[in-house]
Specification:
The protein is of the alpha+beta class and about 220 residues long. The protein folds into 2 domains: about 140 residues, no CATH class; about 70 residues, BMC (bacterial microcompartment) domain (Alpha-Beta Plaits), CATH 3.30.70.1710. It is about 55% helix and about 15% strand. The protein is built from 8 helices and 4 strands, in the order H-H-H-H-H-H-E-H-E-E-H-E. It has a 4-stranded antiparallel beta sheet with strand order 2-3-1-4. Strand 2 and strand 3 form a beta hairpin. Helix 2 runs antiparallel to helix 3 and helix 2 packs parallel to helix 6. The longest helix is centred in the first third of the chain and has 25 residues. The termini are far apart.
């Protein structure tokens, strides 16, 4: 008797049908809120190379998650099949910036709320979260980012380079390679708010063959 009641109660939660209107509302909500998330991401992005692909990924995450949650809520057999299908999928794409992971979770959360029909919570919650995040960004909570500053020059100019490097922001020599009288030195520098004016002195000096600044994530410590 008890098992039968539990079985019926569970089945009743998943015996609904997928409404086209509800599905459209879920996808529309996820799409509009994901545009707001992308707007916040662009305004607070502090890297060197902006990835348009990642912003499209945020949009897809929100809409696909909304589609999955709406399907799970409507049909038990479809939900079990979807869980089985997703269990064999393995994701290996590395996220370069920790903050990108936060935006991905934000997009997924919006998709969950939109798929569950919590449209107001998804919209209002995202607006509040976006405002608080911008306030934190403006107050400087974002910290500094690490970059690789690469210089390529003739060996005879090494003494001058050593003096010029002293003007860099907080820096540390990572590698220094000598190949046929050509030195390629790589420094780790910490920069905030894309302050790259220090590169102008190096770029104006014709003794440098290469002056490059590359964003990277130090995953192996100092």
């Amino acid at each position: 008797m008890i098992l039968s009641i539990i079985k019926d109660s569970i089945a009743n939660q998943f015996n609904g049908t997928i409404s086209v209107i509800d599905m459209g509302l879920s996808l529309a909500t996820a799409f509009l809120v994901s545009l707001f998330i992308i707007f916040i991401y662009k305004k607070t992005y502090s890297g060197v190379l902006f990835s348009k692909t990642f912003t499209l990924c945020l949009m897809m995450l929100s809409m696909v998650t909304a589609l999955i949650i709406r399907t799970v809520n409507a049909n038990l057999s479809l939900s079990l099949g979807m869980v089985g299908a997703l269990s064999i999928v393995r994701f290996r794409t590395a996220v370069k910036e920790p903050i990108d992971t936060g935006f991905m979770f934000w997009g997924i959360s919006v998709g969950i709320m939109a798929g569950a029909g919590l449209y107001i919570i998804a919209i209002v919650g995202s607006i509040v979260l976006g405002i608080l995040f911008i306030v934190g960004y403006a107050l400087g909570f974002k910290g500094k980012s690490k970059y690789l500053f690469i210089l390529k020059y003739n060996q005879s100019y090494d003494i001058n380079v050593i003096e010029m490097v002293k003007s860099l922001p907080k820096h540390k020599l990572k590698t220094k390679t000598l190949t046929k009288d050509i030195i390629e030195a790589t420094y780790e520098v910490e920069i905030s708010d894309n302050k790259t004016k220090f590169m102008e002195n190096f770029q104006a000096d014709k003794n440098f063959q290469t002056v490059a600044l590359i964003s990277y994530q130090n995953e192996f410590g100092d």
